[in-house]
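From the shared-data thread, chain only:
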Amino acid sequence: MKPIAQSELIINERGAIYHLDLRPEELANTVITVGDPDRVKAISKYFDGIEVQRQHREFISHTGYIGKKRITVLSTGIGPDNIDIVLNELDALVNIDLETRTIKPELTSLEIIRIGTSGSLQADIPVDGCVAGTHGLGIDNLLNFYRQESNEGEHQMIQSFLTQTQLHHQISHPYISSASGALLKHFVEGFHQGITVTCPGFYGPQGRVLRLGLRQPDLVDRLTDFQFGPYRITNFEMETSAIYGLGNLLGHNCLSLNAIVANRVTKEFSRNGQLAVENLISKALAIISSL
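Structure, as C-alpha cells:
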C-alpha cells in the first residue's frame, strides 16, 4: 500500500496529528466534541482523573476517566470547516498507522458525541430544553466535496425536503445523514428528538437580519414547516450534519446533543444559557459513562 504523502497527512515533531496535536494513545474511543474551547474544562471537571491535556489553536483536548469509562473531550471551534478537520484527524488517529502512513487493515469505530447549543425551530420545544438529533441535515455544502452514500430512507427524506422547501434553487445542494441508532436509543427520556439542520453561518444562513437583506427571508418558516412522516426539523446550529455525514462515511457512531438557548419561532432567548448547557452536560455524562 502506498504511504499517504506528508503534505496530505501532517504529523508534528512529537508524532502527533497536526491540528489536534494528539497521538493515538492519547485518544479515548469515546469522544465528546464541544464547539467552545472553555467547555472542555466544564466537562472534564466531572472526570475522576485527567491523564492527557493538549492544546493547539482552538483545539483543546482532555482525556480521562469517569469510573472505568475512558473519555476524550475535544473542542472543535465553530462551523463545518472545523468539523472537517476534527473528524478526519480523529479517524486518522485510530485507522491510519502514523509511522508508516498507511491505512490499518482492521478499522476502529469511535463513539463521537457532540454536546452543544442550538436554536429551536418549533414552538413546543422551549428554551433550556434538550434535543437529540435523529438526523443531521446540511445546508452547509461540506459533504458535497466527498463521495456520499445515503440509504433509501435518507434519499427519500432529502428529496422531500427539496420539494417542500425549494431551498436548493439559491443555496448549495442539501444532504442528510442519520445519527447512530445504537447511541440515540439511550437519549430518549428528557430529550426532544428530531432533525437538526446545520448552517454555514450564524446570521444570514440562519435567517437573522441585522443590516443586510436576505435571499431567503422566509428560511425559518420553511424549515419549521417541513414534515416527513414522523420526522420534523427541531433545531439548527453549525456542526451536526458534518459530524454525522463524515462519521457515517468513516464508520463511526455519532450523536449530537444540544441545549436550546433560543427559540426562533417564539423569539425567546434563554435567561441562563450557561445553566442550560451545564444541565445538558450533567445529564449526558450520566448516560455516556454508563455505556
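The radius of gyration is 19 Å.
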